[in-house]
Amino acid sequence: MSAIVCRDVTRRFGELTAVDGVSFTVEDNEIFGIIGPNGAGKTTLLSCIEGLDTPTSGTIDVLGMHPIKDMHQLVQRTGIQLQQAALLPRLKVGEALQLFSSFYYNPVPWRPLLELLGIGVKERSFVARLSGGERQRVFIALALIHDPELLFLDELTTALDPQARLAMWDVVRGIRDRGKTVVLTTHYMEEAEALCDRVAIIDSGKLVALDTVAGLIQRYGGDSTLRLNLNSPALNTPALAELASVQGVTSVDGDGDAIVVKGRGAFAQNVLVYLTQAGLAVHDMETTTPGLEDVFLNLTGRTLRKEH
Fold first, then answer.
1. SS3 for 170?
2. Closest CA to 171 of 142, 193, 141, 201
3. b/e for 139-149, b at 16 or more Cβ within 10 A?
4. Which residues lie below 8 Å from residue 261, measured CB to CB, with a gap of 6+?
5. pTM, rounded to two decimals
6. pLDDT digit string (tens) for 245-281?
7. Exposed/middle/buried for residue 295 (C-beta within 10 Å: 0-12, 13-18, 19+)
8. Is 145 in contact with 106 (CB distance < 8 Å)?
9. From edge to edge, which strands make up the β-sheet containing 57-62?
10. How far is 26 from 94, CA to CA, in rounded Å?
11. Is 89 helix (H, G, I), strand (E, B) or coil?
């Protein structure tokens, strides 16, 4: 049974369609990413899946149950870290963890959880006096306090510094390695590439692509680039003129003393073999391969970072 099944989910607010006929499944024991520019509808979609909002049409199953009608059962089996959340300002970190532990049938010990998230020394600190990154980790601890089998993370590492972000990635991988399922939204392409087994790209409320990261890059990432400097300035020789015919090559251009070759598949290896056979030695080379950022740009016509 899939952890989540969305069938033609639509959410309208008056004349605005925030989510437009979205269908997908999230399988057990995977990290499933949802990415999209600001206003794309990803947080609205996540709210519907979490039972915090009601779709205008379509159906959603979460762990085989209805996210709103079966909320009491789902609360014990799912964890949610919201993009924006707050606690009473005079509440201490340890008090918050102790309070939330009382909400669940089988909470885990919370002090080791604070240590795992790097805020063990903050147990007696007031939540209001924590930094943004420390507060973020408190809310993640609250989402994990009952060892949920399905975890929702909305903009998990937005307020974290790079070192803390990498540590949080290890935490998320560890959750998946323990047999749990994670659904996350993120603004960081490198985060989605590093963590997600599959990624859904949402734009203007529609699902525009869904695949593994490798599959998305292969289908939508575009060409890789090979930049070469030769030992001899032979840009106009017949050998280089014929370089465009090498298998996998899509274009050949000159850039000063360098040759810029674009292509797909094993084109770089084919180019090097061709140059060697033509008696042209390469003394410097640089390769650039497309990533998830390129996929997003090609599908939506804009970069994710510029939207925020």
1. helix
2. 141
3. bbbbbbbbbbb
4. 225, 226, 227, 228, 243, 249, 251, 252, 267, 268, 271
5. 0.85
6. 999 999 988 777 788 999 988 899 999 998 888 888 8
7. buried
8. no
9. 16-26, 4-13, 57-62
10. 34
11. coil
